[in-house]
Amino acid sequence: MGAVFSEVVVQLFTLTNLVYAVGGVLLGMIIGSIPGLTVTLGIILLLPMTYGMETITSIIALLAIYVGGCYGGSISAILINTPGTNSALATTLDGYPLAKEGKANKALSTSLFSSSLGGLLGALILLFAAPPIAAVAMKFRSPEYFSLAIFGLTVIAGVSGDNIIKGIISAFFGIFIACIGLEPLSGTLRYTFNSIALFGGISLLPALIGLIALAQVVIKTVEERSEKMKASAESQTFTINQKEDPPINRREIRSILKTILVSTGIGTIIGAMPGAGGGVAQFVSYNEARRSSRHPEKFGKGSLEGIAAAESSNNTVVGSAMIPLLTLGIPGDGVTAILLGALILHGMEPGPKLFTEQAVETYSIILGLVICNILLYFLGKIFTRQVSKVIRIPYKNLGVAISLFCFAGAFANSGNVWEMILIVPLAAAGYFLGLLGFSVIPMMLGLILGPIVENNFTRSMIVYNNDIFIFFKEPISCAILIIAVIFTILIMRMNKQIETLAADQVDELHEEK
Amino acid sequence: MKVRSNLAGGIIFLVFGTILMLLLNSQVITYGKIHFLQSAKVLPFMAEIVMIIGGLLLIIQSVVFKKEKIVEVCWEDQKYALAVIGLFALFALLIYFIGFVVGALVFVVLMSRLYKNRNIVEIVILCALAIGIYLLFTLVFHVQLPAFWRG
């Protein structure tokens, strides 16, 4: 273990890694702060640029975007009452009222401190919790891996929107897309219609770019045209005045520490559950902070505890969502699903073997996440004011810029013009299916998990002589499938409760005002 | 125009899944004696079955249980969306025929016209960004991009 960590130190602490971590956190802050741009989009856009990088550098750069994006979402939540990301929705409840009182800087510094500390604790929990889980998972064979991939698909329950049937169809549509082209185990061609362009299949990255990034450009462009994107008429935009508006002081930091620790615990548990993510963690933590606070009446009127609860929990999720991803190969949410794709594209195979066969890379990535959270605090202190000015960039310019990156990224994937052309029909499919309520996130999960499901299913059939019930006969595999069913029901219920809770909290706070 | 999203989505995937199912044997040809469960047909088959059953369930939800999500589709918005998708297609072709940077410059100008953006400074910045992206990918990240200019 000592040899691994000394190698980690050599591999991780390089100037290149530091530069990309700083750049990634800043880029994440910018992307997260702009309403309409998501962390998912940011990671997809940066992914093609990481092809020429070392594995450790590229994954750290992507994680840095995730870390920066989670905090960035709070900047617009506080200053313009519009969360930059879904996981900053609860931050608007107390952040914006504080900004209205002329305390935007205090709100932002509370958010930054809570995000950095929550994120740091989440990363440390990942560092210590992941290896024992991976050690247990080392005993898994193909039936268990198949069941785990199915378990990964339970995320669908959390990201299907209002209709789970649409989510399931969407995921299997993604799996079908992943089937097109040459099947690797037997060398059989599937649904190529004798077109050489389809022999290689539809690569993951162009599919993600078309279905998610470019489709989002179309959606936002149409929304902006309909003026849906504009902040509510009641909302004003606030700026940071550092002279008249001091940041959070030591006494205030001490007053929110307990809330941060409790919210970190909640964020860790929820983040490790497939399908829940930062969106759920923030409201559960906010509710708990309000319930246990000595001053619940301040919530919704500019409570620092409220901001701390929401922001520390959603940043903790970054680390805890990586626990099932790195140890079992199960993505916790949409962003970690893309990170799973990124790890595979860079030659890593998420799962327990990561901690033995690619231990240096794995521990470097985990420690890189710790460093990204430390960097977030200092970069946030220096650049939040500058980043807050970016919020006002109109989408007509952002849309064009994102499109340019999308086409460049799709071509860079393989240098194949066909893949670049392919993103256009995929964007159209993503847009029109989205219009009918089919979320593209399950589609993306299907695309990523499809090959893993197939590989392990076929291997199990070969080893266990076509016994389809082997997944239920093997005790661990059966337990995983049962847990998957329980989680699906649990997450569906939890999402409904969170929707009600969020709506109730917003209504209640408006009534109190 | 009001669209019954469950019914429309259900019909689309029922038809799509059925067509793919009918094509399964001609589009996935396995050679030699291989059990179906070990063949390359099994996963597409499962995906098609789910699409067909899911489509049917959505139709039943809509028609029998009257559980429906009505989506307001504004034709003007959809024409605009189609115009944006059309410009994407044009951009892809321009990159293929005249290279990335020149294609991107044309794309920026056309998209700005579509967005009714007459701010020359913003358009120039976007054009500079197109060149910047080319240089960033090729020189900094050492990732191949289509030719700067295919004259």
> Rg of chain B to the nearest angstrom?
23 Å
> What is the helix tally of chain A?
23
Number of strands of chain A: 2
Shape by Cα distribution of chain A: globular
What are the segments of chain A in which pLDDT stays under 50 over at least 5 consecutive residues?
Answer: none
- Nearest-integer average pLDDT of chain A: 84
Count of helix runs of chain B: 5
Order of helices and strands of chain A: HHHHHHHHHEEHHHHHHHHHHHHHH
Q: Mean pLDDT of chain B, rounded to whole units?
A: 89
Indicate how many domains the architecture of chain A comprises.
Answer: 1
Cα end-to-end separation of chain B: 46 Å
Overall structural class of chain B, as computed from helix and strand content, comes to mainly alpha
Q: What do these coordinates show?
A:
The complex is a heterodimer of chains A (513) and B (151). In chain A, strands 1-2 form a two-stranded antiparallel sheet. Chain A is built from 23 helices and two strands. Chain A has 513 residues and is mostly helical. Chain A has helices at 2-12, 15-33, 39-46, 55-79, 89-100, 104-137, 142-152, 155-159, 164-179, 196-199, 204-225, 250-272, 277-292, 304-320, 322-328, 334-345, 354-357, 359-390, 395-414, 417-435, 440-463, 470-473, 475-512, and strands at residues 181-182, 189-190. The radius of gyration of chain A is 22 Å and the shape is globular. Chain B has 151 residues and is mainly alpha-helical. Chain B folds into two domains: 2-72; 75-140, no CATH class. Chain B has five helices and two strands. In chain B, strands 1-2 form a two-stranded antiparallel sheet. Chain B is flat, with a radius of gyration of 23 Å. The mean pLDDT of chain B is 89. At the A-B interface, helix 9, strand 2, helix 11, helix 19 and helix 20 of A face helix 1, helix 2, helix 3, helix 4 and helix 5 of B.
